[in-house]
Amino acid sequence: MVSRVIPVEDFDLVIFGGTGDLARRKILPGLFRRYLSGQMPDTSRIIGAARSDLDDAGYRDMVREAIAEFGGEEAKNTQELSAFIAQLHYVTVDAKGDGGWSELHEMIRFEAVNAFYFSVAPSLFGDLAERLHTYKIADKDSRVVVEKPFGRDLDTARELNATLAQHFDEKQIYRIDHYLGKETVQNLMAVRFGNILFEPLWNNHYVDHIEITVAETVGVGGRGAYYDKSGAMRDMVQNHLMQLLCLIAMEAPSVFDADAVRDEKLKVIRALQPVEPHHIVRGQYDRAGDEPSYREDAGNERSFTESFIAMRTEIANWRWAGVPFYLRTGKKLKARASEIVVVFKDLGHSIFPGDQERHRNILSIQLQPNEGMQLRVTIKEPGPGGMRLVDVPLDMTFAEALEGDNDTVDAYERLIMDVIRGNQTLFMRGDEVEAAWEWTDPIIQGWEARGDVPKLYDQGSAGPDDALLLMHREGRRWSQIKA
Ligand code: NAP
Prior knowledge:
The strands form 2 sheets. This protein has a 9-stranded mixed β-sheet, with helices on both faces. Strands 3-2-1-4-5-6 form a 6-stranded parallel β-sheet, sandwiched between helices. The protein has 2 domains: 11-147, Rossmann fold (3-Layer(aba) Sandwich); 180-472, Dihydrodipicolinate Reductase, domain 2. The two termini are 28 Å apart. It is 34% helix and 19% strand. The protein contains 14 helices and 15 strands. With 483 residues, the chain is of the alpha/beta class. Helix 6 runs antiparallel to helix 13 (430-450) and helix 10 runs parallel beside helix 13. Bound molecules: NADP nicotinamide-adenine-dinucleotide phosphate (NAP). The site of NADP nicotinamide-adenine-dinucleotide phosphate (NAP) has 23 residues, from helix 1. NADP(+) binds at residues 17-24, 51, 148. It comes from Pseudooctadecabacter jejudonensis. One of its GO terms (biological process) is glucose metabolic process. GO terms for molecular function: glucose-6-phosphate dehydrogenase activity; NADP binding.
């Protein structure tokens, strides 16, 4: 199948924090891939903006090195890389100062789409937004992209929303959650709402339970001090897992547009039940030989922050009442794997004599490291010997059939192109983020008030044993964490 990449409109994209880790590892290599695919017009420009004293040539050298390091195979395409690099510019600005802003104003082409990526600490969002207006760099058509974390609780999220709202309309604000940019996440919506097969079964009559797992093999490493103030609940559950849960559980929007989709997601978050203390398991990875423990990585010997969390929650609405949603995420686990598993109910009665096995249809949706979708179905074991049943995965990935369209579009690239197109469907709206914190805050406050101490777990395991019990007590079992 032939790839159908449609170039976006001519744009000027300013990356505040253009010298930072995220810009070098994700944003700029991603933009280069979009350039290679023909999606980025030759006239478009990317303007790095940060305090470092660089000129265009210095910035271009820095980006060339970053793309060589993080850009994968494509970076070897030196001719194309040089052409892409020529579209880069740099301006020295301090978010808190006044130098450089007039120069930035001069650089912007107001006739093109203007987007401003705030790839800096959230504490600088207000300063950037204010100066973009003071210096008349942003107007009512400009877009701003903001990175996570979006607050650390409801109050700080409200503050951030209010700060941005002083200068930008909600239609201009793109809050990134890169999980939403994954191909499979969008495929999930296509499978749910583009087929008649699943929707009739997608409810508490037919679904036994749903699992969402985001497992990492890395520890907190160099981010220890930052992470220790956050923990798995704030860093992963409140945003990534919550977004996945919304897409799995939401009603069909009336149309596939940004607000219709986000309205439905918001209803899911608002229907989420508080989590009982005995339905939460928090953990910290233990030392393993020379591998430091969480507390050593965090540089805090008395830390009670969780590097792992598993929980059970429910959604109080007609579709999902009584269906447990099990969420878990953690660091230093046995494999890097993000997966959503929808486990359908037992048949209730088997007509096949001697068939003692429990056969269940299971839909598994992998987001990481490889994206894919399988439906486990029960069939007859081939060959003679009577009616023996066997469960086999029906692969719904279709990567080969769709080769060409299904290229390696990374979540960040896709989302940045959506910003240029003005499509907010895959970005979180302010009220969604606040509702997510509204659900998260009391859970965190609960364990803080109780003085809960996270359980230690072995590195390379599936987390603390108590997390297994969370499901065992209810006669269920987590899916294997496997890459
Ligand atoms: P970083 O490596 O520390 O980079 C910060 C950037 O901000 C640098 O370019 C820095 O450049 C610039 N900066 C700092 N103070 C500034 C000021 N006063 N005025 C203008 N520019 C200033 O951080 P990062 O890892 O790239 O993260 C950026 C944002 O993305 C953060 O909000 C982070 O939470 C989020 N994020 C990062 C990742 C990741 O993988 N790195 C993942 C998810 C979200 P100068 O020092 O030259 O000014």
